[in-house]
Each structure stands twice: as C-alpha cells, then as structure tokens.
Amino acid sequence: MTTPSRRSTVFGITFVVAFCSIVYELVYSELLTVIFGGTVVRYSITIGLFLFSLGIGAFAYRYVDADPANFFRLEVYLALAGPLGLVFIVAVNAVPVPGSQTVELVAETVALWLSHLPIVVVGILSGLEIPFLTDLADAEADADLGALAVVGSLGRGSQRLARGLLGLLFRVPDPDETPGSDEGADDDGSFSAILGMDYLGSLVGTVTYALVLYPSLGLIAAVFVLGLLNAVAALVVYLLYRDRPAGDSSAVTGATFGTGVRALLVVCIVASTAYAGALAADDRVESELRTLYLEEGIEDEYPDRNMAVSVTDHETTRYQDIVLYEREWTGSGATDPFPDGPETCLRLDAAIQLCESWVESYHHGLVDVPAAFEPLADRNLSDDRVLLLGGGDWIAANYLRDHGATVDMVDPDREFQRYAKEHPFFRRYHDDAYRDENLTVHRQDGYAYLRETDRKYDLILLDLPGARSDDLLHLYSTEFYRQVRQHLTDDGLAVTWAYTRYGFPKHRSAYLTTVEAAGFDSYLPYHAYGDSNGDGRAERGELFYALSPGPTPALDLDSGGAYLDRHRDRYASLEWRSVPSFRGVAPNSVFHPNYDIVVDYGP
Length: 603
Prior knowledge:
The protein has about 600 residues and is α/β, with parallel strands linked by helices. It has 3 domains: about 220 residues, Growth Hormone, Chain: A, CATH 1.20.1250; about 50 residues, no CATH class; about 240 residues, Rossmann fold (3-Layer(aba) Sandwich). It is built from 19 helices and 12 strands. Strand 1 and strand 2 form a beta hairpin. It is elongated, with a radius of gyration of 30 Å.
C-alpha cells in the first residue's frame, strides 16, 4: 500500500479546513437569524463580513513566518474559536439587562454588534489558511500530483479535453509548443490546485450542512463536529512536519515545533476530547445551552422579567424550530394570570403560537366565527370545501371536523405533524383529527399549492406562523394573497389571525397595503374571547381579519353554536370596512419586498 505524499495530504487538509470555515459561517448565520430574525439580512451580512475578513487574513499572511508550526497553531486557534463563537453569541444574548426601555434598546444594539465578532475572528483565521497551504504545497517537490491530487489524476486525455473546452472561451497555450511542458506534469501550479480544493470543500460543506448536519444534529452538535475536524487537521500537520529537519529543502522553512507548540498540542488534544465528549453527550450539552439562551430570552420579553420559563421540549425539523415550555408568573402587585399553576406554550422559530390559556379561544376565532358567516352558516359548512393553510398541530382540523367540513390542509412540515400527532400536549386538543375521512393533507408550501391547484374554496383559513423572518415573506405577499383571492368562490371568504396596530403599526400598514394590492376590498376585524386566567370573565384575545374581494356577509349569530351564544353581544355590532390605504407604504411583493412586514426585525 502506497503512503500518500505530503503534498496530497496538504490538498486533503485544504478540503477539510474549507469545509469547516464555510459551515462555521452558516451556523453563525442561522443562529443570528433565530435570535434577531431577518434571514436575508443575517446571511447577507455574515457572507459580506466573512469575505472581508478573509481578505484581512490573506493580507496579514505577509507578516507571518511560513512555518508548518504556525499553520498548526492556526488550526488549533480555529478549533477553539469556531465552537466558542457559538457559545459567545448565545451568552451575549442571554444576559438579562434590567432598566429602562432606552437602556434595553442600547443593550440589544450592543449585543447585535458583538454577536458578529465571531464571524470576523473565524474569517481572519480562515483567510490565513490558503496562503499557508499554497506555500506548503509549493515546498513539497516530491509529489507529481496535479490540482486534483486528492480525487485522482486527470490523465492525458482528460487534460486534452479540458484544454479543448477552455479553448472555446480563452486562449490556451499548446503544450507541444511550450518549452518544458508535459501533459502529464503538474503544470497547473499549487495556487490553482489549493484554490480548487478550497472551493470544492466549500461546496461539500454547504451541501452537507443543509442536508445532513443541521437537520440531524442541529447547530450545537454541528459546531462541535467542525471543531473536532479543525483539531484533527492540526494534529495531522503536527505529525506530518514534527520530524522535518531544519535544513530539508522541501520544507517552507525549518519546522519549529518547540515548547510553545507542544503546549498547544496538549490544548488541541484536550479540545478534541472535549468535543468528542460533547457529541457523545449531545442532548445534555444542548439542553444546557438551550436553557441559557431560550429561557433567558423568553423571560426577557416580559416587563421586569415577571415570568419564570422552563423549556420542556425542543425539536428541530427541516422547516422550523419547535419549542415547548412552561411559564409561571413570578410578579407581585398584580393578579396571577395562572392560578392553576404553570401553563404550557408553543413557539415556532421564536414566534409564540399558542398557550393553554388561549388555545381554545384562538381556534374558536379561527374556525367557529367564520363558520357563522352567511351563507356558510346556512349549510353549517357540511356542503362547503375549506382550505386550511398551516394547521400542522391538527387542532384547527378538529374544530372543522365538528362543523362537518370537507377540508384540504396544506402544511409542508411532515415532521411537526408527526410530532403533534403523538405529543400529549397536542393530543388534548386535536382528538386524533388527522384520522378524519373528510380531511386531505397536502404536504407542500401553501404558496406552491395555490399556484398548482384549480380548486375553488368557500372558506380559506390562514393558520400560518408569524411574520418573524423573511423566510415567510412569500406568505405575506401580494402574489400569495392574489392566489388566495383567485381560489375563493363568488361568495367565499379568507380569514387569518393578525397583529394589532398598537404592537406592530408598521407591519399592519404594510400588511393591509399588501392585501389591498392583491384585490381584497373589504375586511372585518374581530377578536376571540376566552377566560384566560380562570376568573370567570372573558378577556379579549387574538385579533382576526375576515377578508372579502366583494361580498360582505353578516354573521348569523343564531347558528354560531355555543361559543357565539356566550359572546353574542361582542359580535353583534361588527361591521365590514374598506381596506385602508397608507401614504408612502408599499405592498410586500416576492420580487420587491417590504421588510416592514417582518416583525421583531432586530434593533
């Protein structure tokens, strides 16, 4: 068995370190998106900062001794900085900041800036790698492998083919007319070879992260995998060059693995062991970090931190981050909103979706009130076809089953649907509604479904996640609502929950402008009501909009069932309104986004 040459090993190291560097940035981007929202902004800033930092690192290389021992140091630094960067971002955003609203805003801004520091650190260190590796490859004159030494030699025929194809676009030299050239020789140069392996490693890293690391391991375990790979790369460099004589002409310089490097070797071995242990105890490590960030972050949303939060379950699917937690009132001088003890709540991608105290009132507002609009009320939905966009927890489907409706439910997240089928919290409310013979489930994006189907609906219910990220911009766009309008029957209605004007004025104006641009002329705002704190009195809860492109039907309060009977006086005076126009506010479009429609977009 032939031992790989040092040069081919250098190419292999290039692939590994490029894989790690790009995935570090993807991990940071995803974490920053979870914390601050705004996927496009976070990824764009991360990529820009990373590329700029790569340039700083490459420029700084001219001041660094081209010694293999220095490259060993570099990989140890990356093995430490990469994983610690994630911990740093979590810690910075988990520190409670008591004080006035101004103080909190300043603290959030400082946390936002500090959270981007790991991007710069990893970027600068990564920028040093390519010049180092190029010099190491140049120094290894004992190998005759070409630019793709790790994946196999191109061969004479392949090199002729490559020259022929490139010759269609560029002028290429004829090897027979070039002095000293030979088609079997390495005439590509170390720089192009190293750069090619760097690009290949980056490609494999991005694909592997998206399809394997993030879905199966999550952010925390993934970053420990990367730290372990950097540590292994450092150890390989140490073993490769530790015995290189100072006068060896194939070395960049004499390798100086002195006492300081041996100390770093110990650090590298300890870090490798720690990362391996963290991966073995992934659940426990993730739980600790999750507690540090998620619980502190949720508690910080409440004035004076008057709510104690305990995360009970955390799952990540291909589409979203699922957090179940218990919250308990700890404030004084006010009525305890949870007299029966802590209540369980659900968050999807950091946006609160439902809590025990209002899960039933929310679904009364989403399903029972729309079912009372004429002429739907005359038929009790039994002859109507309803489109439910979202609703992967199956609760809305259960309420629709009570009305005898034929339902198409469109939700892409199969994993969340499976999770909600079995979890005791959701089973209390959905009563195995997924078994309903009148329910058809379409596992795809709602926007895509509306573009593909020709079916018309009497009622379209939008049980969608909140607009906390620009991942969902297409579901709050004129194009989407135009599709919703086109799939309504002549007297059909669309109903959605909505953000209030008091909490999110910019979102509301952008949203209503978008709805109007899509062809909805009228809307009817109403609230759901329920006894959320057990004091026997109904409180106003979630806000809903009924949207109509034409007819403005009245509520038939006599056929609305027990819920509308209890709250008849609250719904008797509802009136349809014209969708308002807002001066200077643009609609949100897929091709021309209005980011005001995204809430909590960061400081």
